[in-house]
Structure formats: C-alpha cells, structure tokens
Amino acid sequence: MSKDIDRIEKELERVVFSKEEILSHASLQLLQSGGKRIRPVFVLLGGKFGNYNIDQIKNVAVALELIHMASLVHDDVIDDANMRRGKPTINAKWGNRFAMYTGDYLFAQALQSITNIENPKAHQVLAQTILEVCKGEIEQIRDKYDFEQNLRCYLRRIKRKTALLIAVSCELGAIAAGAKEEVQRSLYWYGYYVGMSFQIIDDILDFVATEEQLGKPAGGDLLQGNVTLPVLFAMQEATLRDKITKVTEQTSTEEMSELIEGIKMSGAIEEAFEVSERYLQKALHSIKPLPRGQAKLALRSVAKYIGKRKF
Amino acid sequence: MSKDIDRIEKELERVVFSKEEILSHASLQLLQSGGKRIRPVFVLLGGKFGNYNIDQIKNVAVALELIHMASLVHDDVIDDANMRRGKPTINAKWGNRFAMYTGDYLFAQALQSITNIENPKAHQVLAQTILEVCKGEIEQIRDKYDFEQNLRCYLRRIKRKTALLIAVSCELGAIAAGAKEEVQRSLYWYGYYVGMSFQIIDDILDFVATEEQLGKPAGGDLLQGNVTLPVLFAMQEATLRDKITKVTEQTSTEEMSELIEGIKMSGAIEEAFEVSERYLQKALHSIKPLPRGQAKLALRSVAKYIGKRKF
Question: What keywords is this UniProt entry annotated with (chains A, B) (predicted)?
C-alpha cells in the first residue's frame, strides 16, 4: 500500500500548490512538517473492503488530510500556538489573518477533491462531520480553563476533535469503494474507537514526552487551559486539584514543571492509559465481523501501534 | 415570490440556531443585521427557469447566503472591522478567534444544506467557487495599500469577492431546478455581470453615502488599504495620486475627509459609475436568449435596481 500512500503524498503537494507564493509556502510547510497521514491510511484501508480503486479513493484520502490540516491551522490560531512539530506555526510566521485564510483555502481544496466522488452519501457524511468538528472547536474555546468540567465533557470534545474524522476516514473509504452498509458501519466504529484512543494517548504524551519529541514544551495543553484526561484524573487528588485550578497563561515554567511532575506521580497517566486501552479493545472488537484478509490484519496492527506509540 | 423568501428567512434562522449560546447569538445578529438576501433571490429566480420546487431549491438559497455570511465574518477579521451595518462586528464583540469559528460553522452549515441536492454538478460548481472566493480573499490581503495595482487586478479581485458568488447563485438555482445547460450558462453570465456592477456600486457608495447609510464612516475602504475603482480613477490625477499613496491606517479623520472630497471632485466617481453601467448592460444582454416570462422580467428589474441603488 506504500505506493498508494506515496501517490497521495504527491497529490497533496499538487493540490496545495498555488500561484500565490506565501500560500503555497505556508501549505507546503504544513504538509512537510510531517504528520502521520493516518487519515489517508484509514481511507485506503477502508477502501480495501470494497472495490478498491486508487484513482477514486485518493480523492477521499486527500480531502480528509486537507480538512485535518485546515483544522490544525485554525486550532493554532485559537491556541495562539507558536510551534508545531518543531517549526513556527503559520500564525506565528505570517499572522492570524493569513492563517485563517490558509485554513479556509485548504478546506476549499478538500471540498473540491471530494466532488470527484459521486455518491451523495459521501457528501452528506462529510458535511455532517465538518459541522461536528466545528462545534467541537467552539466547545474547546468555551471549555478552556474550566476546571469544573467532567469526563463526559472531555470525551465529547475529543470525539469531535479527533475521533469523528478518523471514524469517517474509515467509513468514507468504504463508501467510495462501494462496500456494504454493514462494513461501512463496522469501519466507522473501529475508526471512532481508535480515534478516541489516539487522542487520549496524544493528551498523555503532552505530559510524558520530551520537548524534543513534542516539538514544543511539555504540559502545553494544560498551560493553554485545555483540560485533558490526565488532568481530570489528577484533580481527584485535593492538593493537585488546588494547584491545577490556579493555572493560567501566566503560570511560570518552573511552576508548570513542578505541576507536571506532580501529575505524573499521581497515577493519573496510568489511569488515562487504561481508558485508552479500553477504547482500543472496543476498536478491535468492532472489526470482528469484517471479512478476513490483509486489510483486516492491517487494521488490527494499526490499532495496536496506536496503543503503544511513544510520541 | 415573497412567500418563498420568507420561507428561506425562517430556514436560515433554524439552521444557524445552535445549543452553543454565543454561537447562536452571533449568527443571529449577523442574520438580523439585514443584508438584502440578494443571493437567495437570484437562486429562486434561477430556479424559475426549470422545474421550480421550493423544497429543493431552498437548500441552495440557504447554502449561498450562509457562505456569503461566513465570508463576511472572516472579512471583518481580515479588515479588523469594528462595525457592520451599524452594529459591532463579531470580532469586535467576541474576538478574532471566535469570529473565525463562527465563520467556519456557518460555512459547514452551508455545506450540509447543499448536500440535499443530489446533482454532482452542483457540488462541483460550489466547491470551485469557494476555492476562488478564498483565493480572492488572500489577494485582498496581499493587495492592501498596494497603490501600484492596475484595473485588471481590481476587476479580478471583485470577481472573486462578489461576482462569482452571484453568478453561481443564478446558475445553481437553474441547476437545482434541472434547467437546460444553455439556460444555466446565460444565468451564470447575467449573475457575473450584475455582481461586478453591484460591487462597483458598493465601492462607490463607500465614498458617496453618508455614515448613517453605511453604518460606518465613509472612505473606510481606502483607510483600510482597499484600492477600489474610484481610487484607481482618482489616482490618474497627480496631486490626488500623491495624497492617496500616502494613506495608511494612521491617516487622521480630517485628512481622510479632505481626501474623500478631492476624490469626489475629480470625476472618479462618475467614471466608476460608467464602468458599472457597462456591466449592467452586459447583464441585460446575457438574458436575451432566456424564455420570456415573469422570471425574466424580474431579472431585468433586479439589474436595473442594482444600477440605481443609493445605499
């Protein structure tokens, strides 16, 4: 499948190219800053359960990666983030306004790519997803530094932020390949559970990975007021809760380091990891009804890889 | 047709409603701050040349108005605008980040609305248009305070900023109603020319209308560095050119008032108006091949109304 992944990589480069120099530059930087292209991989794997045709399915893969990229650019504006994967963000380099439009542009390119799929269901699923992702982003603004929020609130937010787009990657791959309805459903749920697990691991890594691995200082989520699963668990301890609820943008690096150590020592990381594991188990369970073969084995490996990744 | 317009109004209100209170509030304010709903009107008129079915066509009308609204919200961020139609803008009231997401949300709602149309051509046309509109917005950032730009540059920008969306409103109305291909084409060109004329008049009004009519101070475009048609014509006079090229965001209100008077006296307004008139003539010419009837008469009146509007 790596040949097809390369093809999507080239397609992405072609699509984001623009005569507008800064725009091309910004989009290409974003593209080259890596990312694991997990959405395209899931689209292709989903497609393997139907009539796999790379010329059709590449349009879905490209669209989903572009939507993901667009949401990253807009997220960085929201978070006032300076760095992404060790490089200055688009907003840091060219300003919020330009970042806003780069996001819009990538988003528009995504739409154009998906118009190559004729099945109206594909458009409906995508539009609904984008709407939910948007709602999630607005929730994320609303919930910042809200230390009264509960687990349900967090789970709903990461569903919209991450899990939905992965669920839909799997589903749309199957839709574009004309796979059966039950297969589409199973793949959706697989992607949903994998996505939940993926985001929880991401939120854990923000505490336990090194600055080098993250490309930005550890604990950045908490500093920005994003209340993630390890934070929710850590707050069950009164002393930690006290310190955490006092975090603002102004909290010093020293205070943050100390707090991060406290969170790591509290067992919150392990608890969060257990939740992630439970989602992975559900993901593996979801694909049981799918026909055996290479694609199913690959889905299983991907789920396991996500559970183990260290950065 | 006013019954159908009312219906679209209600549909718009329903669609922008969200459980997220601020979001609902912001979108409703935007909706209620008026606007002439010219895009929905053009969609409905376009639909009259085919199999007019309001239940189908309303989805196109709603989508186009929402895309227009979304682009206004993002434009206000770009322009750092404080007022729109006499009310504080979303960015002024709730900040740039929230405005960015309100735009994204409206945009997503637009996409969802259009998925109710099954014809793939509708999706292709819309995606292509959104892409062009985005490019136009990036050009608008790039071209700010660039007093070396020429007429072609201006015309390309207003095409992307305004004319395309109006052209596509007419065309998509016809597409959704299953009108003939030639009819779709004629309507597209009618909308394109009307849109060009409409934007030129808008750019003229920014100089000649009162602050009360505009809901913001006159000459605001120039102050923000938007080089419009009256400015381009005024710059043909050396003394005016000299003053205009010195405009920055810091230019005082007194200097601006003097400059606006100078531009008004130079004949630039009249020249710009003539260009608008020529576009209107082309619009009227474009609909000649269309079948006679109420809808055609309405298209003619709308074009004439646009040519005469005073604010």
Answer: Magnesium, Metal-binding, Transferase
Number of domains in chain B: 1
**Number of helices and strands in chain A (H, E):** 17, 2
Q: What is the DSSP string of B205-271?
A: HHHHS-HHHHTS-TTHHHHTT---HHHHHHTTSHHHHHHHTT--TT--HHHHHHHHHHHHHTTHHHH
Q: Which residues of chain A does B131 touch, with a Cβ-Cβ cutoff of 8 Å?
A: 105, 108-109, 111-112
User: Residue B28's pLDDT band (boundaries 50, 70, 90)?
Assistant: confident
* Count of residues in chain A: 311
pLDDT over 90 at B155, yes or no: yes
Q: Give the residue from B111, B137, B172 with the most A CB atoms within 10 Å of its CB, the best one to mutate.
A: B111
* Helix (H) / strand (E) containing B87: strand B87-88
Rounded to an integer, the average pLDDT of B269-298 is 96
* Number of continuous H segments (helices) and E segments (strands) in chain B: 17, 2
Residue of A nearest to B109 (CA): A131
Q: Closest partner residue to A134 among B22, B104, B130, by Cβ?
A: B104
Binary contact (A111, B118; C-beta < 8 A): no
Count CB atoms within 10 A of the CB of residue A148.
9
Which of A194-198, B18-22, B72-76, B125-129 ranks highest by mean pLDDT?
A194-198
pTM: 0.86
User: Taking a C-beta distance cutoff of 8 angstroms, is the pair A40, A8 a contact?
Assistant: yes
Give the range of the structural domain holding residue A241, as residue numbers without chain letter.
2-307
Residue type, B198: F
Q: What b-and-e string marks burial along B144-156, b requiring 16 or more CB atoms within 10 Å of the CB? A: eeeeebeeeebbe
As given in the structure block, the two tokens for residue A257 are 């380091």
Which pLDDT band holds residue A133 (cuts at 50, 70, 90)? Answer: confident
CATH value at residue B55? 1.10.600.10
Q: What residues contact A249, with CB distance under 8 A and at least 6 apart?
A: A223, A224, A225
Give the separation between CA A229 and CA A203, rounded to whole angstroms.
Answer: 7
Three-state DSSP state, A84: strand
Strands B87-88 and A83-84: unpaired
**Residues A133 and A160 sit within 8 Å (Cβ to Cβ):** yes
Q: What is the per-residue burial (b if ≥16 Cβ within 10 Å, else e) of A42-66?
A: bbbbbbbbbebeeebbbbbbbbbbb
For A298-310, give one letter per residue: b (16+ CB within 10 A) or e: ebeebbeebbeee
Asked if residues B69 and B84 have their Cβ atoms less than 8 Å apart, the reply is: no
Does ipTM exceed 0.90?
Answer: no
Average pLDDT for chain B: 91
**A127 contact residues in B (CB cutoff 8 A):** 108, 111-112, 114-115
The CA–CA distances, whole Å, from B211 to B86, B215, B232 equal: 9, 6, 22
Given a contact cutoff of 8 angstroms between Cβ atoms, the answer to whether B170 and B286 are in contact is no
Task: Inspect the interface and report whether the beta carbons of B114 and A127 lie closer than 8 Å.
Answer: yes
**Other CB atoms within 10 A of residue A252 CB:** 8
